[in-house]
């Protein structure tokens, strides 16, 4: 199986779920396991069972020995552990400029067979030009009072690196996005930046695996429902990897594999797609939007927002995220 068809995050979660079930079947608590395998703390086991750390094959083998796993289970879980570790290293080699946050999203996207995204006010990160992305990143830095873990140029390059997923020659996922008109309004950036963004969307819309739908301002969804936030749905190439939902909630992102949470969002996405313009009508809309922007676009020497935050601003205890 080529690396592109494996999601390290899903592998880690599957491994963790299996290990937790084996521990519970063996009737052992976390503290008892840590004591018997002589680990320094219970947090190591917790991170492994919750899929939050890269599995060490030796650690996994020690747990399987303790739990008395049979040969079939040992073979399957050892393979999952190796895949999770190997894929993480592959990502680091393939995307050396990627920030840790962007790498987490890349790991989730890597094994996807299909991605469906909706954003009420922005172009999704996988579709953004460098100029559009820089405006988004700089605006987040203002809200966060300049506190970010990485240089904004690196963030832009990382986001651009993730986009190769959609145009790779092997195992490119099916990608569908519903975009609100507001994502390309003047509030989103200066005309020249928006013109370049529209041009990129028009180019991507010609790809056979990409379906873009613009949602008109006057579109009405089923029962008048209005989605409160951006969200993404992921379906993986490996049928054993569960469907996953990511919800953008301003200062945090929520990721879930709970079907009780995911299914309503799948219904909403179908409402959005049905209410939006068709693929062909969206291409026409983008062409017309480009023509309108040509009339107002001028070469921009700024386009990235102010370098410093306004004198008066609200303080937030959290940190805004934007992918």
From TrEMBL:
SUPFAM superfamilies listed in its UniProt record? lambda repressor-like DNA-binding domains
Ranges of Basic residues composition bias in the record:
312-323
Select a single GO molecular function from the record's annotations and give it.
DNA binding
Q: Which domain of life is it from?
A: Bacteria
Q: Which InterPro entries match?
A: Cro/C1-type_HTH (IPR001387), DUF5753 (IPR043917), Lambda_DNA-bd_dom_sf (IPR010982)
Q: Which Pfam families match?
A: DUF5753 (PF19054), HTH_31 (PF13560)
Q: Segment Disordered: which positions?
A: 295-323
Recorded hits in Gene3D superfamilies, A to Z, give:
lambda repressor-like DNA-binding domains
Q: Domain HTH cro/C1-type, which positions?
A: 19-74
* PROSITE patterns assigned to the protein according to its UniProt record, in alphabetical order: HTH_CROC1
Its keywords, alphabetically, are: DNA-binding
| Name the UniProt record assigns to this protein | DNA-binding protein
